[in-house]
Amino acid sequence: MTAPAYGVLRRVSETASVLLENNPSTMTLEGTNTWVLRGGDAAASVVVDPGYHDLDHLEKLAAVGPVELILLTHHHPDHAEGAPWFSSKTGAPVRAFDASLCIDAPPFGDGDVITAGGLDFTVLHTPGHTDDSVSLLVAGQILTGDTILGRGTTVLHDLGDYLRSLRKLIALPAGTPGLPGHGPELPDLPATAREYLAHREQRLDQVRSALRTLGEDATPRQVVEVVYADVDRALWAPAEASVRAQLDYLRASAEDGQ
């Protein structure tokens, strides 16, 4: 496998480039993808997810050139923590779904169109990983933050929200490229979203099966030990969060008589 090119701006499409932050882990894969987007002859770029307050990364990002706007896909620190410093450095405002993350600009909402950097960004509210997660459709490609990763699956906060978000992404035109917050680009994001949906339905069946063995009051940890028995134990803690979301979903569905 080729070593990640940290600190080197890599062109991905006519309008999008990526600067990979050197913060690899089991949760961030090779690191955080900071996206730099600019259309046509625009004088300044839009930066999506500056990453941690990592001055080596942020200084390299600032050296790319003028920045008109900073957008955040969600509040997690590996995406948003560096935004205040980067905003101060570049003079660019920060916009996010969560108003508390915004600097010198209003929050955005589902369906909003943001024009900056010579491009139009359409906001899709795609909660599930977090309540404030969004995906950004721009120039025929979509930035997904942590809603869909370049490989593997994301940790869930709310499964019902997440399933609805996947269906929203599946409805995009076939062949729409995905630009994720971690991992490699995806050539057909709707197809990947369809695979994610099938995977989540399979996991739900596995959790239902585990509950039949363990009892309906089983804890998330007990379910993880059954369903994720073949998975590296280093991933059991984030898996437990996802299982908790699945149990909440199944128990709420049972209460509703679904």
Automatic annotation (TrEMBL):
It comes from the Bacteria. Gene3D superfamilies: Ribonuclease Z/Hydroxyacylglutathione hydrolase-like, Winged helix-like DNA-binding domain superfamily/Winged helix DNA-binding domain. Residues 31-182 form the Metallo-beta-lactamase domain. Coiled coil: none annotated. PANTHER family: ENDORIBONUCLEASE LACTB2. This is MBL fold metallo-hydrolase. It comes from Amycolatopsis albidoflavus. The lineage of its organism: Bacteria, Bacillati, Actinomycetota, Actinomycetes, Pseudonocardiales.
